[in-house]
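User: I need a structural model of Branched-chain-amino-acid aminotransferase from Pontixanthobacter rizhaonensis for a docking pre-check later this week. Nothing fancy, just the predicted structure tokens so I can convert them on my end. Input:
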Amino acid sequence: MEFKTLPHPSPTPAADRTAALVDPGFGKLFSDHMVVIDYVEGKGWHNAMVGPREPIALDPAASVLHYAQEIFEGMKAYRQDDGGIALFRPEENARRLNASADRMAMPHIPEDLFIEAVQKLVAIDRDWFPSVEGGSLYLRPFMFASEAFLGVRPATEYKFVVIASPAGNYFKSGVPAVSIWTSEYSRAAPGGTGAAKTGGNYAASLVPTREAFNRGHDQVLFLDAVEHKWIEELGGMNLFFVMDDGTVITPPLTGTILPGITRNSLIQLLRDEGLTVRAEMYSIDQWRADATSGKLLETMACGTAAVVTPVGTVDGKDGAFTIGSGGPGQLTNKLREQLVGIQRGAVEDTHGWVMRLD
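Assistant: Understood. Predicted structure tokens for Branched-chain-amino-acid aminotransferase:
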């Protein structure tokens, strides 16, 4: 498919861009361009364009506005130590988007088209990499139902869009470990959409997330919807539990939690270290007991935005407990440095995860 490039009538002046990139925060600043590709049932994907980032015109009856038929991905482009640019496992993002599409009755986008769209945007907005330490270009590919109709059925028209956001650190600087609040709300139930990266799952997390913030915590923890005892995931991150016998536990992919690409990468890196990783159910009561006894050494949260982040304290209706010293653990720090090093070209990529773009 040929991409048409539309000139930007008024790109951000270089001086303004440079000033904004000194401290971009996360998800607040956006680059000049976007990619848009249309889909019509019977015709397929067509009309691929790279052009100015601008509002999307939607009919008031567009299906996404009424039935939430929408999916998205989160990924990053990284500036390499030698000045080049790379993506990290973009084919996995393409596969996960299509897995989400299956659950939401949406069309697949070919993996090579997904990756090409991302590459096109990074190429045209390569000057938007932030200068802040640890900065990256956060990429948000998403697909939504654009057909105008009122009726509960899968749409026949969609748009695939990619936008970019220069990003600094996800959590505020100076925090050695995050604090989490155990919610009594449920994020997803068996047979639901928990394993799909769809906006409705995140909408369901907003009230408990606000509750966590109001109580002074950084993130919210969700337990299973049936027994309300088994740990599933945070509002936007997977979890790992490092035990004193050299094993690491992570909740299993049973259809109610998102299969994180960072999670998958960490499992491989842990096994590279000779550690045993067990995907098994782990209860909130066992977490508290293991943290209290010292059997649990570290807990780490992971995701594209936050990378690898230590969990220091856990609070909830039964009171709070601390993990280790309440700060980052040795293994958490090592894995973060290793993963970030691979992404930025400072550590050898023995698994072929990095895709150079230059």
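Before docking, keep this in mind: The chain has a mean pLDDT of 95.
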